[in-house]
Protein 1
Amino acid sequence: MTLTPRLLGLFALISLLVGLGPLAAYPDRSFTLTPAESKEIRNFVQLLEQAHYNREAVASSDYPSVIRSYMEDWDAHHLFFLDSDAEAFIAKHSDGLYWNVTTLGDISPAFEIFKRYEERAQNRASWIFDRLEGEFNLESADEFVVDRRDLEWPTTTSEADQIWEDRLRFEIIQELLNEQELDEAKEKIRKRYERMIKNLADIETHEVTELFLSNIAQLYDPHSTYFSADTYEDFDIQMRLQLVGIGALLGLEDDECVIREIIPGGPADLDSRLKPNDRIIAVSQSDDPEAETVELIGMKLRRIVDLIRGEKGTDVFLTIQPADTPDASAREVVRITRDVVNLDSARARGAIFEVPDDSGTPRSVGVISLPAFYGPNPGSTDGPQNSASGDVAILIEQLQAQGIDGLVLDLRDNGGGLLSEAIYLTGLFIEQGPVVQVRSYYGDVKVDNDEDKAVRYGGPLAVLVSKYSASASEIVAGALQNYGRAVVLGDSHTHGKGTVQTVYEMKKLDPKLRMLDTRSGAAKFTIQKFYLPSGSSTQLNGVVPDIVLPSIDDAMESGERYLPQALVWDEIETTEFDGTPLDSHILAPLREASLARQATLPEFDFLQRNIAWFTARQDEETVSLNLDARIARRDADKSFQEAMKLERKMLREQNYTYTEFLLTPEEEEVDATAVEENQPIKNETEIADLTVPVAEEEPGSEAVEAVAVAEVEPDAAIDDEEAEEPEPEGYAQLDIHLREAMRVLVDAVKIGEQPHFAERVPLTARSSTGG
């Protein structure tokens, strides 16, 4: 499933502050612009043309494509518009679009297209309501194309009617598969489209404007967007204060609410059931069967946020369509307890595992899991604050005190954070030298160096990554790979976000707008590009691991390369640094040993069967409209998944014994069995200035200490009655990639014990003062 970047200007963190005022009672449906708003539009386009990193790639001739992309934002699956609508709008507005927007600040096509969409949707809803009164054939051999994004809009009303006839049968079967009676299913579908029409009636002028201008911004790259005044106000609040909610970053895709990111340490993260790309289908405030369940199709993101946010300690019930289940009828109700999530205090955590080498001798392997690159807020006066580099340094000291043989740095699902922290953290493992190069549009290159000669950990090192390791994570993994300091393992590639964005309030651009006592929108746009010390960009291709592990994530179309208008990969001159990638005589035996285990160990067979099942289901372009066939498929899928759950439990019995280390305020007592309450931080795409310096003193050294918890043994034997128990949290999970990363590291330690490596053991620092 491809995740489109459109509507990024409408994202929101769950949840906004409790106490924010209610939405306006009377939405602005004028669909006209004031002179000040037209001026702001002109300034916005000029800013992109003059300051965007990719400004030379966009010409006036590209603007006509905005018409179609904007129509698809409203109607992604080509269900409501007719092909004649697209032809008419493109013919009418293509020639003068650039001139009207840039010279006059005129975006009237946006309003005209939206009104047509609303009209088509209202007419279709009326047709649906009438059709639901009739009977439906659920015994045919017909197939339905669920994802119509690559298909054209229907050419005639009769063709559209047939598409909707099939879609209604599809939706009825979806509900019947989820234990609804036929009449209940029809009534639920009726309410769904009644709500869709009601939600459309709430769309306001500034939201239409925001979406249209974001389409223009995304001619340049997928991370550029326009914030309306309301969205920018929310964005600013999120950057400065703590939130009460579930801790998730949301977006809209195809009129559905999609979880973009789970905020580290928030309630959703600690619960561990919600995942990126899951779709939130409905929300309820109670698990009482009589309680109202509100479907979210077509709902504005702000209203979705209002439904999900609430008082600390209260519960919200989310109906989820899991991303890792290709069956569109799959539903799961997840209960989350709302809590306070601070934006500046996610924490690293660590553990020591006892991993046997090929002779059976146990080796102590340290693991440090880092959810994000967090750091102090320069404007805060709340006393000592945590930082990623400071916390990792503390954990390294604690782990080394226990005599570890090697260390795994786990950066999976780490979406980035402060660039400064990425540099400091890399410096914990190298003596000194460049970490990242930052290039501007003009070609000038700034090299950011680790200036500290001290090496906190100089022993064998592995870095574990995934397709959700992005930005700052890619800088750290790529730099350590460049230096030959670590072996990198994980998915086939990391996310590939190698760009820097800034956020600029529009009124600051124009003296006249600054004088007006009105709010203004803002532009988020790309200004720089990241490059590793070798000169290779992290953009698009990301970091390619030295050892690739089989992953279900690789079966999904996720990552920068799948985003439209993503900036290209390129390279610049290498900068001088004291290091080289791993030699083949070291990497080859590590890779060969890993491939041998991947071919023989039961856990990899288990993983490959899961991947094969998911891939086969995902590759199916149609679904049956025969109820009996769908029931049989559902039951077969359920049997497979239950068998996999049981096998997962059995494999967990083979988990290595480990001792966990948590970071906690030193004045608090620690329950050795408690789950650490991490808290989330800002993602890099949400920070205007990624190069904000942190305090010179060691960050967080006075605020935290590492506390070892009780040694944990693998799960005891389980029986069939326990098969429905939830997956354990943290290091108690079956984590096949982490297990293999530790084995590879043990292999490297064994290789380093050979006499000819006496001068420098593989995967160690060239000069070390820290071990």
Protein 2
Amino acid sequence: MVAVDLDAQRLNLTHLKQPEIHHLVKIQPHGVVLILDEPDLRILQVSRNASKLLGVKAEDLLGQTLDEILDPYQVDRFRAGLSYNNLELINPTKVWARRKGDDYSVFDAVFHRTADHTLVLELEPAVTQDNIPFLSFYHLAKASIQQLESTASLVDFCHIIVRQVRSVTGFERVMLYKFDEDGHGEVMAEDKIKDMESYLGLHYPESDIPSTARKMFLSNWIRVIPDATAEAVDLYPSINPATEQPTDLTLSILRSAHPCHLDYLHNMGVGASLTISLMKDNKLWGLIACHHRTPKLVPYELRKACEFLGRVIFAEISTREEEADYSYRAKLAQVQTALIDFMSEADYFVDGLTCHNPNLLDLVDAKGAAICFNGTWTTVGQTPPDEELNFLVQWLNKTVDGEVFATNALPLAYSDAERFKNVASGLLAIPLSKRSYVLWFRPEVIQTVNWGGDPNHAYEVTDEGGEVRLCPRKSFDLWKETVRFKSLPWKPVEIKAVLELRKAIVNIILRQAEELALLAQDLERSNAELKKFAYVASHDLQEPLNQVANFVQLLEMRYDERLDEDGKEFIGFAVEGVSLMQTLIDDVLVYSKVDLKGVECELTDLDDPLHQALSNLRGRVAETGAVITHDPMPTIVVDRTQLMQLFQNLMGNAIKFRKPGEMPQIHIGVRRREDDWLFSVQDNGIGLDPQFAERIFVIFQRLHTRDEYPGSGMGLAICKKIVECHRGKIWVESALDQGTTFYFTIPVGGRDRNHASGRTTQNYPFGRR
């Protein structure tokens, strides 16, 4: 056997590593297999070792019925049991097979049916002619359970099992082997003779017991190989004449093991083996593996006793595990209930999850947690930086397809996580929406794993006479591996807890959204009434104000000669007040109309509203000598009139707040960004204190007296409203005596694209944000 380096393109390693067990059609030579045709129980196939065990050649047995080779009375019992289609009524049983003369051989007989309902009878020579009585099973299990009651440790439980099994069977080594989530296994308990090397605590790679073999252990709870060196026996004929296919021996007790597994036993120095499945929740939890260095025949009754022992004692282990899980589940349920109460009472559900004790960390025993909601991160404990969290969420959006994502090896799935492995090698994530997540983190735990041989070279590919096959490793010496980039694993109960929390969060968000929607409706109705009142009130104020202005002017004209200087001054004050009042009313009307008439968006060359604004300001420009320049303006979808008002107010503001004796210099700039257009209006005026950068956009707010700078205090409030109605933002950057720059943005969303082919008008209520 020579190892060869084969082209990976020619070699299907997956097929070799996961052999199809149902294609194995040979049996072990210590028993006989009969393939039967129902209902007459005629022999269709028989193993070629029939002459040795039954005294009749395989060729001569074909076509005979069971009545001709077994006790007819027992065969009648078989037919009765088969008629009820319940093999449990007849399995297992002792049978007597005729030999020459009056000679009989006693066998342990077991029936089973294949996937295509072919009936198979397996016969093994009986070591004793008597069945083990029930009380023997009972006392065997009772003695073991009494030992279990004295300890609460899972490891101690496992050691009790292997001691009992070895005591009953006489094998030189008995191990209890548990599978992990990756399919690898660990020897949790071992009992052996002194001169054998210990395998306790060693890990074994998934390829040692591939998934196809594990599936077989689900249906075959006990598997025996009395002689690992024995030559396998064929069935005769090789093809079942009834199905015209090879008979599927997957469920056969006598089926020969896969050649790779026999090589594996040989390399371990094992001459005989017995394997018992340990099941939990209909899944393969682990195995009890019994090894002997020389061939060892294990009677059928003894094997069943071991299977019974394994089931009874492991049921006790499962109960203890469930009790431990229940205690932890109860603790998590208390934390979950508290978190839901905190969220329900908080104005903002994130505060309910993070600002109390217990908090998010206590739900899953995490060291860090982060919540991303509405683009804002809230963190608890040790977490990656916000920038890394943003990239992580982008990766999750592309990766996660479900309600939860859990890994204890994040850097192996997301390479960027290596940068923060010390805080987040483990990740548990639940999406609330496409951009909102709740994340839990666990730090890296560097571990040393002891393997039985190098797991990176668990097998080698060989070519024997043109047949490519896998051969297991020859060395099972201790091989240490340092495992990095992994955290402690997330328990199923923890994953279930976060899924339940996700439901609670979503329900609370929906409830709060409904409450906000109702509040928004009330506010919208109230705002509409206020705006209507402002509009109507402004109109109604016009008439009395005009009357006041007219009568004051008439008073001045008729009685000018009779008025002294004080009277004329008083009339001047009244005229100025009326003028100011008129300005205020006009500005209030403009402010209310911005919202009431809606945004009439159309594809607009911004040169047009800009030049209209300049034309409206030409008198003030000529008076002050202002120099106004601008960048080339884009063509975008906006309300033409509103943008004219915006430009006019900002440029008028720059002219008004010029430095004394200095000619105003104003520049309107624009540049395209990824999601919007950024505009700027820069001047060389008196500037303002940055602490007032927000206040100046509030209605009727002024930083100067009207004697210093006239105006109503409405101009910038109108600018803010116009920009927000276009779904943009406006802000100011300034310093005293350093000039001022106003910035505002106009998004480049779907409306630009929708109007790209021509001019179209759409009305948008100003209240829509």
Protein 3
Amino acid sequence: MPSSGSDSRPPAAEPRGRDWTARSTFPVRGMTCAACQSFVQRTLESQPGVRSATVNLMTASATVVFDPVEATPESLVALVNDAGYEAELATPDASATGKQEIQEQAEAAEYRSLRLKAVVSLLAAFAAMAASMPLMGHASIDPLLHHLFMWMDAPVRLLAPWLYAVPPKALKWSLFALTLAVMAWAGRRFYVKAWAALRHASSDMNTLIALGTGAAFLYSTAATAAPALLESRGVQAEVYFEAVVFIIALVLAGNTMEARARRRTAAALNALAHLQPKTARVERDGQEQMIELAGLRRGDTVIAKPGERIAADGVVTSGESSVDESMLTGEPAPVDKAPGDRVAGGTLNTYGALRYRVVAIGTETMLEQIVRLLREAQGEKPPVQRLADRISAIFVPVVVAIAILTFAVWLMAGAPPARGLAAAVAVLIIACPCAMGLAVPAAMMVAAGRGAREGILLRGGESLETLSAVDTVVFDKTGTLTTGKPAVVASHGLTAEAWQALASVESMSEHPAAHAVAEYARVQGIEIRPVEGFRALAGMGVEGVVDGQSVLAGKPGLLESRGIALPEGSAPEGGASRIAVAIGGEAVGWVDIADTLRPEAATVVQSLKEMGLRVVLLTGDQQQAAEAMAREAGIGEVVTGVLPEGKLNYLRQLQAEGKRAAMVGDGVNDAPALAAADAGIAMCSGSDVAMAASGVTLMRADLRLAAAAISLSRATMKTMRRNLFWALAYNVVAIPVAAGVLYPAYGILLSPVLASLAMAFSSVSVVANSLRLAHWRAVKN
């Protein structure tokens, strides 16, 4: 049987000229284990025209890349439905948040259905056990139930003495009817899917349950309908209907707990989907009106009152407020907004009223893109999943073979057929491909959601796995390790009056250095005075008249060209740019402007070193400026003067040396290196190209998130490996015990009902272990 993982399945040879451009993602409900996932994936991959298919158990979805000439989304959905599962196409114009809400509603409905069937089945199981009490002449197929019978005999005689007056034949047929009803209603899903798998020459967990309960049911039916025939052949004509009902009830109870746990793993994604408001307050024709979000247009003016959510991405045109962006960026403190600032749809306006112009709607908004990326990340399989996929592909046939062998060995050992049947049923029921199917995607789903709450967007499972294995972190300088904004770092000789004159003329300029001076003046509370005769001297500086005095500010060469002697002072340090200042034709001092290190940079570098990582600064800047910045950040290894191609070559050189490198960058010139690195980490403050080339996006300009992303990836991989170990170890140990290997030496024989309990809790334990990642905390420095 071929492997289920699309990662491990080599692409089919592509006919010349074929264009594999069509891609469709749709929900698939009814999958309960890795074998189900594997079966659906193989079914889709067998369709002519399908290039690749990825089916995810946790997100209950399938993503298919296909040739639209040979296949259509409708035919793919029909194929899945024909296989016994439930699939449907999403509404063509549905947004990512809309799709998530639809999926959440479907999962909630499935959970309620499972819960109802589990509760009713458990009640029916206890009723079947009570009805079996008068038939105590038989030793139940299930040792556990036999002990329960012995314990409950007295209470049943006390509460329902009339049962013991009912003829045994009538009781048996009543148990037959009750069991058949439970199998047809609550257990129907197992038999329908098992039959669909059989028609496609495949098998899954439903096959095991159907075989186990079906064998016990048929044996009991034969004992009810033709007891004399069995006894004439030396076989006890005992019925085991109660065991069948108990197994179905407990498996459904396990599925219910699993469904509930799986819904919790999607909590972050569901929370993001619910951020999108349903309506918007727009201003049209001079009047306010509430409209459905679908009616919003680019260019509309929207009003956000205190406590309302921003309807779409926009630019503030009037009003001031603070906006809570924590669900999008992980930043806990509200962010001040004023005219000219951008706001993102789904964020919460706090105390003031804002008017903003809509610049992005629908799938273009930041919220939509985050939800889409998060869904894709949770659906992508990391390479570590390949082992589970390969095992899942052969798991069920192997278990069925072991069950048949178990029955045969017990018979050859001289045991009654009922004993051999009990052991075979226990083997079929205890085997759990569910745990293997959930081991990796459950952890991936929780990690992606936890990362999103911190402001870390993981592009997929492969990105997470490679990030966890890096041993070197390479930082770009400008805009990554530094703020990317020039600031005043030193000054000399300037009095309060001189600062006021300098700030006034620089406030008229658009040059980044002038902005740095103006910002410094604003922070220091320096009053800006009117400026007359302002002139920007291209590439040199500015001049103007403030309070009747001429002011000249710019490169030292500008003052020299005007015959003004430069003020004395040391040369700029760390690659800073110097602005010399003259007032009234006389030099009065200077200001040094430089890009500044991010406040958290030094502590982040130290944290990375403590994690055992090598840290490198890679920049196109001159050596003096780069080394000064590296010293301040605590980085000992610096590579300077490299162009984008040089950054790419450096990454390749590291990889050739056997290193696994993560690249942290923000600009267009970082994109090739981000794409070539084993793990690319892009700052959200950077370019769209950089973010598209990276596997991890930091949703706010905070370097602590880079260290947190590595820490989260390591914690997630550790959880995945623990899950896989538990899933494999459980099956390796449980199946032989169920078969009875401990019986000759210790007299231990596992009950089929106990086996169904163990199977249910094995998958729940894997999801519960993954949910521990929801409490992961980034190290705060």
